[in-house]
Amino acid sequence: MKKLLLLGLLSLAVAALLSVAIPLVSTSVYADTSAIASQPNKDVSTSVASQDWHQYLGGNLSEPINRITFNSRFNGWESNSSLQVRICKIPDGSSIQYCTGNVDTVLSSKTLFNNSNPMPVGERDVFVERTVTLDTPLALTSGTGYVLNVRCPGGSCDLRGSSDVNAYPDGSLGRKVTGGVAADDTVKDAYFVIGGEDEIEITFPQDSSEPNTNFSNWEVNYELLTQGSGKVRVGYGTDLNALSLSDEVDVANNVFSTAVPRENILTPGTWFAQAELLDDNENILETSPVISFTAIEPPDTSGMQVVAIQPSQDSGSAATHQYWDQYLGNNLSGVVDGITFNTKFNNWVSNSSLSVQICERYDGQSVFHCAAEKTLASKVIYSSTNQMPLSEQGVFVERTVVFDNPVTLNDGVEYLFVIRCNGNASNCSIKGSSDADSYGDGSLAMGVNGNFVGDSVVKDAFFILGSESDLTPVIIVPGIMGSRLNRVSDGEEVWPDAQTMFDSESDEHLDELALNISGKERAGKEMDPESIIDSEEIVIAGPISVERIAYGNLINNFIDQGYEEDVNLFLAPYDWRLDIHDEINRFGGNVSEAVASSPTGKINIVAHSMGGLLVREYLSNFSDTSFVDKLIIAGVPQLGAPKAFKAIMYGDNMGFVFPGRDILNPERIQTISQDMPGVYELLPSRRYVQVNGGYVHDFRSGGSDILDYDETEQLLEDNAKNSTILGIADGFHSPLDGKSFNAQNVYNIIGCERGETFGAFRIYDDKVEITPVDGDGTVPLTSAINLSSEYTNYFIPGSKHMGIIRDEEPLELINNILGGNPDIVPDGVETTNQECFNPEDQSRVVETLQVSTHSPVELHVYDMAGNHLGPNVDGDIDLQIPGGDYETIGHNNFAILPNGNYEIVVDATGAGEFDLEIETYADLVPESKVTYIDVPVESDASVATLDFSGATGDLTLNLDSDGDENTDEQIQPNAVLDSETAGDIIPPEIVFDMPSEVIVNSQVVIDFAVTDDLSGIEVVEADFDGTPVDTGDVVQISSIGDHILTVRAVDSAGNPRTEEFVFHAIYNFGGFMSPLIQDGSGIYKLGSTIPIKFQLVDANGGHISTASALLTMKKISSGIVGDEEVPLSTSAADTGNIFRYDYVANQYIYNLSTKTMSIGTWQLKIALGDTTSYEVEISLKK
Fold it and tell me: 670 pLDDT exceeds 70?
């Protein structure tokens, strides 16, 4: 078989800079060569000019040799150096184990580098593993000895290999190894020969550079490491799961190449590439691994000014450097941020460098040089430690360089721009003007010494970019969890500490963030909100890492425009755990600093999410807020968000997710948030409930209520949530929710049409459901648009909560607003909410799929490319499906995805039953719902799978009960609901028609009715004291006490209702017997003994003798029964106050002695074991 290998070396010398990412495959796989050779040996002879390394290959070889892999270090490359490899045969009967140089012994030779093809600077003096393909495969003959020879004329080589003096299969041929060995006697795989079947390898040469703004094509070169013909196809794109392999190239010889047009790779982000090898009949022989690379945009130079355009070259030169100078003039003002220029570096050597400078010209001098004391800014682009990529050597490349520190220009001072091309006297050519007098002041004209590519009319070779001066300061205020929290005691980061979060399944390190029950910091656990989180990176495994961009894009957006942190860009971190009101003083310090640095005394504020609530609270304290020029709020939960309810009640990741992976343990967030005012203040407020109609439906215990604010608060308190902090949150919102932001120019950026936005929680007897609502995935639209008539509003359909301050469109919008152009709206941004609620363009309708399971099972979803959504083996959640989200509430799991075709897998965690529901929404309106109810699973080995292609497709659920990967049962859905019934959220109604109290040993007819007005009844189950029954059944109640009838009903939409009906079984009390009078009129002599008697029977009239009966009595005064029970005297026949049973008379009897009682009226009370009691009054007289 032929093999195709795509190595992880990729380059792009183009406008969208490719900073090479970690390859997905870290090692190459070669044919097994253990039987060929694995040990090196070095020739004992050395000389100044050359050094040979030899490896005896053996004498029992027969497979052909196609290529050679070895690892060497070439020391001291010179103009006469070269690197060669040879295969030689050992003369018959000779013990010579090196190449003698005789023509008849050298079978194959290959020169890798020489003076006309010098070794790249980056490969010199370092160990490099190389694979060399022979021009012609070399057939080996068994019985002939062979030697591999690495030659290094003009220098010397070190080779990774064995220092064992007798390391060969034939010990008699062992030779002493001298010098240069970079291993030990246990390392014997330093280099080796590869033989056997043909293979193919595709290599993308490495190339990393500063961003460019002008280029032609991205050249991709392939090296075919086999003989023969065929075809190679290569594919590239930003979607790993949708690589279209095209760009087919015919292969006839060893090397071929293709070019990828620049316009194909201008989209920033992660790109993927893959190739495949085909034979002449286009059968795929092998597919390469996937490699990844990153495309980023060049610095944003929009709004900058061209202040000079002509170049000139210094008339003097030296052996080790060359200057290109440009006189900029003396009437300049403003700020120089960066430079764009186009050069060709002709001959890069080990000591070369490329740098640029801005300097002042010596007063009164015509010298066009930059001296150190006159240099204002400089930037080294390439140097000996950061080599220029090979692809940029000897070709024109346009570069844009942004200085670390901008230079302020002063009118009247003359300035120069210099390009330094050190390393050779004729190193650089520059695109520009050949006009010898091209400057404004002819007296300063200088002769041009050639190397120009332009002509007298081409004067745009390079130019200086200057930004507008007097920038209005901007304050950035992040949302919840957007500020780093460092431990005050030692300065160590506690939040987020993402690597620790990833490495820990339970995230217990976050326990330090918990507050006390008053919502204050605990002693010794104080935190410092040190900075805004720009980005976080976690190492997944080895060299593979993942980055999460938080506020980095927003910050860099301003920096790229010339803003400087703490000069005119201020970041306002805060402790998001605490009461927002307590953080306004900290924010006030940021405001004071920004106002003080403003040339006009005005500032701009960009506040995201919870940060907007902080700004609202702060500004409410001022009568005059004219110091705020523009206030931009983005994704602000002005009235709160139901997602906070989930965090406090069930746990949540609070949006802190990495691309493709959710690493934050939601249960830990639930634990630490219980006493955090900042989280409680994100709960929906009273105004939210008034506007939205409530966000909690409580269907438990037969209820059907949409809870109001106070009822929701009571629900939280009933679940042990902090009542004090609930009051703080209410007090925070109530004064402000009905008032607009206290600023003149408020711009509100709102995300919508995200189907994962929590709108309501539906709490049933045995599960929880979620109802989506329009929003940005976190903040509902109704909260974000509070009092929207007071603001200038922008709506971004499809934008996620963090995307509002991270994505290209909103960043462009923010720039337009602050630049005084709020009416210039980027594509994808709307100025009305029409596109959020009911888009006129029906192609814009967002179709969402919500898959949920209910019971202790794991839910997994895979798209057609194999991307996974659901829990992984590390205890985290994979979020690999584009646009997918995953939520867990107790044993309820939810996968929210773009509508499409998916494989749904339900993995049991134990024996029992589960429900599976699949809902389809069009712009959050239910379109269809498929339900599988009470699916049985035998054990934790059970797995159910469904290939879902829509509600009208094949809906067979394949159940593997025992985990043997074979389908044991095929299950059809209980119901497939259309748009008329898919929105049913009301569970069935259960009505009982039976007596609640019965005589023991009665027969009772079970009588209940179940109804559902919308989707219809799907499941009805009933049991009486644990035994299954149905309505109409007759049951015998054979013991006293409570007997429970439990009825569970589920409608076709999967809404469950469980209700209980309690039968209380009692004895049939026959009344008090003589001499007592039932109506209480009996009068008895004080001091006498009164027999108290009664009988108990069951429903059939049978006497009951086993009941317990106790007698108590209380004195009645003025018609009021006293509280004190009087102790009873006992007779020989009685024990305490317990009745005895007379089996002859079938009656209970107690002889009451009245000797210790007093004259008057008494209440006698009999308490029976069936929880009933009976009273009678008696009167005592002398």
Answer: yes
- The C-alpha atoms of residue 742 and residue 622 are separated, in whole angstroms, by 8
Q: What is the pTM of this model?
A: 0.61
Instruction: Give, in degrees to the nearest 5, the angle at Cα 91 between 89 and 97.
Output: 65
3-state secondary structure of 123: helix
Per-residue exposure over 715-728, b if at least 16 CB sit within 10 Å of its own CB, e if not:
bbeeeebbeebbeb
In the predicted model, is pLDDT for residue 3 greater than 90? no
- Is it the case that residue 320 has pLDDT exceeding 60? no
* Residue with tokens 């682009």, as numbered in its chain: 381
For the chain, how many residues are written?
1182
Rounded CA-CA distance 263/1023 in Å is 69
Q: What is the pLDDT of residues 22-81, one digit of tens each?
A: 222 222 222 233 334 433 443 333 333 346 777 666 666 666 676 676 777 888 888 888
Structure tokens at 779: 């903040």
Element (H, E) at 553: helix 552-559
Q: Concatenate the DSSP letters of all residues of 49-75 into one string.
A: S--EEEEEEES---SPEEEEEEEEEEE
Q: pLDDT tens digits, residue range 191-234?
A: 444 444 444 444 443 333 333 332 223 333 444 434 445 666 77
Q: Which two tokens stand for residue 74?
A: 């070439």
Mean pLDDT computed over 1118-1131 = 73
Question: Which among 82, 86, 130, 90 is positioned nearest to 109, based on CA atoms?
Answer: 86
70-73-76 Cα angle (round to 5)? 145
Rounded CA gap, 278 and 300, in Å?
A: 43
Angstrom distance (rounded) from CA 479 to CA 494: 17
For residue 719, give both structure tokens. Answer: 């679940």
Q: What is the 8-class DSSP label of residue 814?
A: H
Distance CA 662, CA 511 (A): 19
**For residue 386, what pLDDT band results from cuts at 50, 70 and 90?**
confident
- In tens, the pLDDT along 927-980 reads 999 999 999 999 999 999 999 999 999 999 999 999 999 999 999 999 999 999
Contact 803, 809 (CB under 8 A): no
What gap in Å lies between CA 496 and CA 504, rounded to an integer? 13
419 has which bridge partners?
A: 324, 356
| Alpha carbon distance 409, 332 (integer Å) | 6
Judge contact between 638 and 737, C-beta under 8 A: yes
Give the pLDDT band (50/70/90) at residue 103.
low
Who's near 341: CB < 8 A, 6+ residues apart? 356, 398, 399, 419, 430, 461, 462, 463
Distance from chain centroid for Cα 722:
30
Amino acid at 325: D
Q: How far apart are CA 54 and CA 167, in angstroms?
A: 13
Residue among 963, 972, 964, 1037 nearest 1006 (CA):
1037
The DSSP call for residue 298 is P
Label residue 541 exposed, middle or buried (CB < 10 Å: 0-12, 13-18, 19+): exposed
Of the candidates 634, 614, 571, 572, the one whose C-alpha atom is nearest the C-alpha of residue 800 is 634
Question: Could you give phi then psi for residue 403, rounded to 5 degrees?
Answer: -70, 150
